[in-house]
Design brief:
Distance between the termini: 17 Å
Largest sheet: 5 strands, parallel
Number of strands: 8
Shape: globular
Helix content: 40-55%
Order of helices and strands: HHEHEHHEHEEHHHHHHEHHHEHEH
Radius of gyration: 24 Å
Length: 367
């Protein structure tokens, strides 16, 4: 896999250009959102899924499509109130909308102002963190004949009675390969026969966003001379990000092998003692605890402390109070257990693909 500086410049240009409309492998999601928008559905819509599954890409493609006058999706006189990145956790959403639109919320009737506009699209990120009053406000606005509310969130379990949920699953390896071919044909050709192997390392969880970040960063640093050994070294060198992204599916794959019942606990040692773990993963206690910390941050798992002598739960005590005989005990939360159950087939498929890619890479490096 080789290339020159000109190819590298072309790849960066392709990766930073506007994505095609509709977005590849998310055409149906795009059409679903667009249809609800042009009908100004009275039901707010929310796109849910883990990071890197195409939610923001679909949203960006939609905004681009409806604003370009030469686009077949263009909507005349549409006012877009894009609240992505707005701080709304402690501020009523109506105040944030007024601020974005340049009005003083003390001087205007927000409902009356929105009704007077011809067409309005309101886009809100992290809708799962909205206060109850803000949710009610958006539900009331969505009922207006000229308004459509679109939300995004990473919480797969997001459910609200008056919201239409559109789930985004992780991309498959073949979808990632197809997307790369559409977005950057030059990069796709440069990777050549090693594409599946490299993509399994760049985006082992089907994370499209990370795939492009990793490949773009690699090209910026090394050009498009793709060497398998160099690429794996580069991935390993970015370990902080790599650990965080790689861990979720790999750890859930291992936890699945413990055959846990809901609410059943496990320890680091339980996983380390699994047959074949050391052969499949470069796993030790430190890496495993980092992986578990990632699950805790995502609220997919919880942690308590048990005294090995008494079995007493030490959850709320300090390290000194817990004493030397306490061990960390983990369990999947209901969210984590549901996620594992619903995603089991995908987790097994992608982890096994990653393991096979690793074996191929090791065999090539030994030749």
């Amino acid at each position: 896999m080789s290339g020159n500086g000109t190819d590298a410049d072309l790849i960066i240009a392709e990766l930073t250009s506007s994505p095609p409309i509709p977005p590849p492998c998310r055409e149906q999601h795009f059409q679903t959102v667009y249809n609800s928008l042009i009908e100004f559905s009275p039901t707010p819509m929310v796109l849910t899924g883990v990071p890197g599954t195409g939610k923001t890409l679909t949203k960006n493609c939609l905004l681009s499509a409806v604003t370009k006058k030469d686009s077949p999706y263009h909507i005349e006189d549409l006012v877009i109130v894009d609240l992505m990145g707005a701080t709304h956790h402690n501020t009523p959403i109506r105040n944030v909308i007024c601020e974005r639109m340049g009005f003083d919320d003390n001087d205007v009737d927000i409902f009356d102002m929105l009704r007077k506009l011809h067409r309005v699209l309101i886009v809100v990120d992290e809708v799962d963190t909205l206060k109850g009053s803000s949710c009610v406000f958006l539900e009331q606005v969505a009922v207006f004949e000229n308004c459509f509310v679109l939300g995004l969130c990473n919480d797969l379990a997001f459910r609200k009675e008056k919201w239409n949920v559109v789930p985004f699953r992780a991309y498959t390896s073949s979808e990632l390969q197809s997307i790369l071919g559409v977005i950057s044909p030059t990069l796709s050709r440069a990777i050549g026969p090693f594409m599946k192997l490299l993509l399994s390392e760049a985006a082992p969880m089907g994370d499209c966003r990370r795939m492009f970040l990793v490949l773009k960063d690699y090209v910026l640093k090394f050009g498009c001379n793709f060497d398998v050994g160099k690429f794996f070294s580069y991935i390993k060198g970015n370990k902080a990000e790599d650990d965080m992204v790689l861990s979720h599916y790999q750890l859930l794959y291992l936890i699945d092998q413990l055959n846990l019942a809901e609410n059943q606990t496990f320890t680091v040692e339980n996983i380390l003692l699994l047959k074949g773990v050391h052969f499949h993963f470069a796993l030790n206690r430190i890496i495993l605890k980092k992986w578990l910390d990632n699950l805790l941050d995502l609220n997919l798992a919880s942690k308590t402390y048990k005294n090995t002598n008494t079995g007493v739960d030490k959850r709320n005590r300090s390290a000194r109070q817990r004493g030397r005989n306490s061990v960390e005990v983990y369990s999947l939360t209901s969210k984590g257990f549901t996620f594992l159950r619903e995603k089991r087939d995908l987790i097994i498929e992608q982890v096994r693909e990653s393991l096979e890619a690793g074996r191929i890479a090791r065999r090539k490096s030994e030749q």
